[in-house]
Structure formats: C-alpha cells, structure tokens
Design brief:
Blueprint (H helix, E strand, L loop, with lengths): L6 E4 L9 H14 L3 H8 L4 H4 L1 H11 L3 H17 L1 E5 L2 E4 L3 H4 L5 E7 L9 E4 L2 E4 H14 L4 H12 L10 E5 L8 H6 L3 E5 L4 H12 L4 E7 L7 H7 L8 H9 L5 E5 L6 H20 L3 E7 L4 E4 L1 H12 L3 H5 L1 H4 L12 E3 L2 E7 L6 H20 L4 E5 L6 H4 L2 H9 L10 H17 L16 H4 L14 H16 L1
Parallel strand pairs: 7-8, 7-10, 8-9, 10-11, 11-15
Antiparallel strand pairs: 1-2, 2-3, 4-9, 5-6, 12-14, 13-14
Length: 497
C-alpha cells in the first residue's frame, strides 16, 4: 500500500500509533473472557506479548474445545473485537472496516478473461521428489503418509475418494476466486489444469501476472483478472502490465467487481505478507468474504490453515504420539539431562476434559513466525467456525509444513525444516503441497460427505479440520514441537553444511 492514509488499518492507541501488539492482546483477552475469565486474566498479565503470546493462543483453543458453543463464542467475540478495532480510510474519511464496501461502491475495475488451449488433465497426479505419481502410486503414497503419521487418515480417505471419482476433476462448472493468485501454496495451477474458471487477484506486479497468465494459457481452464476500468489491452503482455489490485487499499472496488461475477463461486484466501501487513491483508480478505456472503447466498469460503498453530486433535494422534514416546528406548535415557531444561518434552503430557471426552492439544506454535502471523491465521479459523455455523459453505484444511520462499528466507526456520525429519516431521515441497491441498478442496466441493458443508454432522467445529489434516507429522511426533525446534535447527545446519 503506497499511501499510509488509504485503505484497511487498525485503530491507533492513545499515543496516536497503531500497535498490533496491543490490539492482539486486547482481542485475545476479550475472546478468552467469554468462556474462561481466568485465562483472560493470565493473558492480560502478559508483559512482553511479542515474546510470551504463545500461552494465550493455546488457551484460546483449550477454552474453545470444551464445547461447540464455547468455540463459537470464542470465534464470534474474537472477530467482533478485531473488527471493532479496524477501519478503512480514504480521502480523509474514516469508516468502520465492515462498512467500507457499502460506503465506497463505485466500480473501478474491468475484467479480462484468458482461455487456455490445452486438454483437461483427466486425473489426479502428484508431484513428489522430482517425479510425478499417478493412480496407484498416489494411493500408495497417501497410505504411506498415514502409516508414517504425516497426515490424518481422513485426508487419505478424502483423496482416495477423489481418485474413485475422476469425473469430480472436471471443474468446468466450478468458479474459484483466488486471493493471492501468485502464492506458492495456492491452488491456481491445479484448478486451471482441471478446467476451472479461476478469478485471480494479486498485487499489480507484472512479473507475477506474466507467470499466472502463462499458466492459464497452457491449461484447460479460464482465468479472469482485474484491470483498471476502461483498459484497452490487446496482448497478454499488455494485460500483465496493468492487471492486479491492492486488496488493502481497494477493498470496496474488489467487492464491487466480484459482486458482478456469476455464481456460485468459492472465495479462497491464500494471501501472505510480512509483519503487521499480514494482519491488514487478512482483515481485508475477511471483510471481503463477510460482505460477499452477506449479500449473496451462492458464495463459499476456503482457507488453508498453518500447521504451526494450536489444534485440538484426534484421540488416535495422541495415542500414536505416546506410543512413539514409550518406544524411545535408550535414546529416551540419553535425553534425560536435556529434559530438565525443556528439551525433548512429550507432545501430550495431559489431555483436556470436554463434553465429548478427553482431547489432546497439539501446540505447534513457532515463535519465529511472530504474533502478527498467529493473529492473521487465527482470524481465518474464527471466520471458518462462525461462517459454517451461520450456514455458509466453508473449507478450511491444515496444510503441511512446506519449503515456501516466505519460510526458508527465515534462516532459523529453514534450518529447523532441514532437520525436522529426525523427529518424524516431513517438510513438503510447494508443488506437492499445493496439488494435495487443491485435490482436498475438490473433495470438499464435490463430496456429499464433505466437512465443508454447513449441514455436516460434527461433534465440534474443530473436527472439520482435525479429520483431514496434513500436519506433516507434528501431531503424531513423540515430542512437543518447540522442545526440539532448536535441536532440529542445529542438526539442519550440519546437514545443509
């Protein structure tokens, strides 16, 4: 965003400055206060939020997992409190964020559609370790991941079902709006390969649009991109030069543009930014989804959840983790001295009592990713919880740890990823992750048993993403992830060196 006085922003504090730290602390405290006042008091007492935000984010999940109503209360309160501290600024005027789309409805964007000239890919193939797996090999890989504890059985079952119904991959009747069209983890390439209509949004960066347009031309799908209203573009190069939009600065224009897209369609959010900008773009995407689903009944929502967060997990994940802990043998004895300083801690030392029985809490938060990342990703989970209960089709799936550019540029995380396999955690390549998660989205769209359907029978909202998570092994490892993060990084440095 080039103009700091334009677009989505957060409300400044008494000193006139915007502090995402202060806002996050207040929002988390309010969300906790609805169901667990003691946890809210602990959050309020945190002095150094940037360093000690991990425990309150864990408390949010523990508080919400006790009942479906508790999870709903946490989500609704968290969303409401965050939006109450969010505004949209333009031309010296400031309005509440959720009112911005209605306040500035004037159209400013036109459309260009790119049509591919390739045949539709008739089946699901999966890039894996430099080759492409087909049919039976995909099935074997899915089952191997389940056996290795890398994904939940529900994910393998869902993808097996897609393989059983190859006609589901004819997406010529499907429209998906992809926010973050150039994202490494986005489904754009797979959707186009399967013949979908993809409405793509990303920043006005010609190099990104050149790549996206070339992908569309080589596919069986259709790509619709936003350009300034009245643009006269006669070539792909000319389109790439002017395509794109800054969602943070032009949220109302994007809503007006998308309101004219024929439905039904799914609004998929795959955006990322560094630092506080991630919170702003996540808020913009959330306000866009709220405005579209409020105004039409043919819009669904889709998200990818990060594996480095806190989740209430299946009993099977807890049992396997504990079996692995008990099977350490002599290595467990050798680890004893380091356990005294918090290393090699068990993943599930205890469980939480809920109305549906004992539940394990997988605390996979990584402090290196920071509190802004945690807030932006938790916002999406809150929206998924609320929207599904409000009758909106909503797909949110846990994606595996992946070597994306945004991750590996952090040296500590890159080193930890390089050593993660020593602790039963598989880090995926982007092409494997985005294809796998695109196939899971197809299942969510097509299957009558999809957990994305608002009428899906779930004991708890968290079950929707716990059943078919691709956590990479974090949930079933013997060790609490943070207790071995530094050791994995040290081993990773040696491996890479």
């Amino acid at each position: 965003m080039t103009d700091p006085d334009t677009g989505v922003d957060l409300v400044p504090g008494p000193d006139g400055r915007v502090s995402t730290t202060a806002i996050a602390k207040a929002v988390v405290g309010a969300a906790l206060g609805t169901v667990d006042p003691e946890a809210a008091s602990r959050a309020a007492a945190v002095r150094e939020w940037r360093k000690d935000y991990l425990a309150p984010y864990r408390d949010l999940v523990v508080a919400g997992t006790r009942s479906a109503d508790a999870a709903d209360a946490v989500a609704r309160t968290g969303l409401a409190e965050l939006h109450a501290r969010s505004v949209f600024r333009r031309g010296g005027e400031e309005v509440p964020l959720l009112e911005a789309c209605d306040r500035f409805p004037e159209p400013a964007l036109g459309s260009v559609t790119i049509r591919g000239d390739a045949a539709r890919d008739p089946g699901l193939s999966l890039p894996f370790h430099g080759r492409r797996l087909f049919a039976a090999d995909v099935r074997h890989r899915l089952d191997a991941w389940v056996h290795e504890g890398v994904v939940e059985r529900g994910l393998a079952t869902s993808i097996h079902t897609v393989l059983d119904h190859p006609d589901w991959l004819d997406l010529s009747d499907v429209t998906v709006v992809v926010l973050g069209a150039g994202a490494e983890m986005g489904p754009l390439r797979s959707l186009l390969r399967w013949g979908a209509h993809v409405v793509a949004l990303d920043l006005p960066r010609p190099e990104v649009w050149q790549r996206v347009i070339a992908t569309a031309r080589a596919s069986a799908g259709r790509l619709t991109v936003p350009v300034p209203l009245g643009s006269d573009v006669q070539s792909d190069e000319a389109v790439a030069a002017v395509a794109g939009v800054d969602l943070v600065a032009q949220l109302p224009e994007v809503r007006t543009w998308l309101a004219g897209i024929d439905g039904p369609f799914t609004l998929g959010t795959y955006t990322y930014a560094d630092g506080a900008a991630h919170v702003r773009v996540a808020l913009a995407a959330d306000a866009l989804g709220e405005a579209l689903t409020r105004g039409r009944d043919d819009v669904g929502l889709a998200f990818l959840a990060t594996p480095t967060d806190v989740y209430a997990v299946t009993p099977g994940a807890v049992e396997e983790s504990r079996r692995r802990w008990d099977a350490r043998g002599l290595s467990g004895v050798a680890q004893l001295p380091l356990r005294a300083v918090g290393r090699f801690a068990p993943n599930y030392p205890s469980t939480v009592a809920t109305e549906r029985g004992e539940v394990g809490i997988a605390d996979c938060l990584v402090p290196q990713q920071g509190p802004n990342y945690a807030l932006a990703k938790r916002l999406q989970r809150w929206r998924a919880t609320q929207s599904r209960r409000d009758g909106v089709w909503t797909s949110l799936n846990v994606a595996p740890a992946t070597r994306t550019r945004s991750v590996v540029k952090n040296r500590a995380l890159a080193a930890a990823y390089a050593g993660a396999h020593r602790f039963g955690v598989e880090v995926f390549e982007p092409s494997t992750s985005n294809t796998l998660m695109a196939a899971l989205l197809v299942h969510d769209l097509r299957s009558p048993e999809s957990v994305a359907r608002p009428d899906a029978v779930l004991a708890h909202p968290d079950d929707a993403w716990a059943r078919q998570a691709a956590h990479g092994g974090l949930w079933r490892s013997a060790y609490a992830p943070r207790s071995v993060l530094g050791i994995a990084a040290a081993l990773g440095v040696l491996t890479r060196g």
